[in-house]
Amino acid sequence: QQQVKQSPQSLIVQKGGISIINCAYENTAFDYFPWYQQFPGKGPALLIAIRPDVSEKKEGRFTISFNKSAKQFSLHIMDSQPGDSATYFCAPKATGGSQGNLIFGKGTKLSVKP
Amino acid sequence: DAGVTQSPTHLIKTRGQQVTLRCSPKSGHDTVSWYQQALGQGPQFIFQYYEEEERQRGNFPDRFSGHQFPNYSSELNVNALLLGDSALYLCASSFGTKPYEQYFGPGTRLTVT
Q1: pLDDT tens-digit profile of A17-56?
Q2: Who has the most CB within 10 Å: A15, A103, B70, B98?
Q3: How far is Cα of residue B68 from the mean position of the Cα atoms in its chain?
């Protein structure tokens, strides 16, 4: 069963614009919410992560917003650059015994046009 | 400071054969997780090793097995290869107290013909 639904599947943004990627989850027992960035031919790179006791976290141009009641968290990329063109994955972790099991979404392919 | 390294980079095997993939974790990390990433999909968790033991396992058949060595490096073994095993195999390392904060290697591209 799909526990994590990521949207949109693909996104085209102009340079300097804001990119927004969303992740909705079904299992309430997630306690760690990271976003990963993956370039073609490379492994995913940890971009930014948030815990459920915080509603927003910002690191440079990247911001995570977390809405616990709606079971959603989103990634905002401000001032998007062509170098941000990559596939982005949300990958929340379930609580309890699943200490290592990140559940990846299907990914969002971002293209930033110059 | 070396990140996560994996070998080989690419591998071509025939259906029914066996394969071994290798991973060295990031310096200071003691936990290794393995993921399978099919083309156009997100990675799927196979299993995680800590203190040389399998700590957690995803929904993969027993054909997938692993090992962790005293120096924290790890191997992923897949027996009786199927065409559907063709994928990018990713290794991620983390520290024992934060097993979820995972850093990935570049992966091994396995093609089964």
Answers
A1: 999 999 999 866 788 899 999 999 899 999 999 988 889 9
A2: A103
A3: 11
CB contact under 8 A, B106 and A41: yes
Q: Which residues lie across from B75 on neighbouring strands?
A: B22, B67
Q: Residues 6 or more apart from B56 whose CB is under 8 A from it? A: A97, A98, A99, A100, A101, B45, B47, B48
Distance CA A92, CA A104 (A): 7
Which residues from B are below 8 Å from A36, CB to CB?
Answer: 104
Tell me how far apart the terminal alpha carbons of chain A are, to the nearest angstrom: 39
**Residues in CB range of B9: below 8 A, 6 or more apart:** B106, B108, B109
| Position A93 confidence tier, pLDDT thresholds 50, 70, 90 | confident
Q: Cβ separation of A101 and B58 shorter than 8 Å?
A: yes
Alpha carbon distance A28, A82 (integer Å): 35
pLDDT digit string (tens) for B35-65? 999 999 999 999 999 999 998 899 999 999 9
DSSP A50-96: E-TT-SEEEETTEEEEEETTTTEEEEEESS--GGG-EEEEE--EEST
